[in-house]
Amino acid sequence: NNEITVAGTGSAMVGTFNNTGEINLNHVNSLINLTDCTVNNVSQITNDAGAGQGIKVNSDSTITTLTHTTSSRIDLGAHQLTITSAFSIGGKTLTLSGTGILSGGIITLNDPNSLIQVTGACTIANALTFSGDDATLDIDADTTCSGAFTFSANTTFDIATSVTLKYSYIAATTTCRKNLKFIGNNGTMDMDNLTFEFNTGGTLDIDNNTTFVGNWKMNGKSKIHIATAMNLNIKAITSSDSTFELNTTGTITNLGEIFLMGTTVKVAMLKISENTRIGGNFDGGTSSGTKSN
Question: pTM of this prediction?
């Protein structure tokens, strides 16, 4: 139940606190203030960080190693915090606030209860690996993720109403072979002109109204599932090989085109609410609405 401040001097994080042991944030009200410094070892243990507690960044700083065994909070302010070493969330929550930048090593959501919750309009520059089945990225304020997404398990994105998650990783294509579920109501996923590609085993699962901006490619027997009465607002879907399935009792709207190069599409029910160009072969099921071939 204490507060510690570690402050360096100058503007290049020249102050280093060389602690070989950890600074243990072991109380709900434990707080470490970081100002222009590097701290070697910090751990959030024993108790979850309370509101307004945990780690507060007052100017650009670095934590070399963060041990995350209970739920933690990082207030970035308008600054950058670099966590140099990779770390895992475990079955806990990492809450990010402020408008600054989190950077450094890979963050792994390695448990079904792993959760990163973003409450401020910040940037996550770390690569994110989703390896815990149904681990969640919860976006409650406009957020940019500029590190690579790696999907080795089914994953949930919860993007709040009128909020945008912008994914701007430098690679031209990000691939998913797992179930990617969107549960936020009327949130937006912006691919920043990049391509998100679903391959064999991959499913784009729309459980609530969602808007996509960017290029979405369905290959290798991948699937799109839209829940009843839900709406997928998407610019374009392309497919270049094999078969993908549209399994929906919801609606695809404002669609520029579904472009299928020699592909057979298995359709259970496809509702089209506006003029849509469809090329390719449809197998079974029914469709309703206006379409042009």
Answer: 0.88
What's the angle, vertex CA 75, arms to CA 71 and CA 76, rounded to 5? Answer: 130
CA distance 142 to 264: 37
Which residue type sits at 183? I
Distance CA 191, CA 213 (A): 6
* DSSP calls for 2-21: -EEEEE-STTTT-EEE--SS
Tell me the pLDDT tens digit for each residue of 208-219.
999 888 888 887
Burial of 228 (0-12, 13-18, 19+ CB in 10 A): exposed
- In the numeric block, which tokens belong to residue 7? 């402050």
CB atoms within 10 A of CB 14: 11
**Chain mean position to CA 85:** 20
Cβ 94 vs Cβ 126: under 8 Å: no
- Condensed to tens digits (0 to 9), the pLDDT of residues 57-93 reads 999 999 999 999 999 999 999 999 999 999 999 999 9
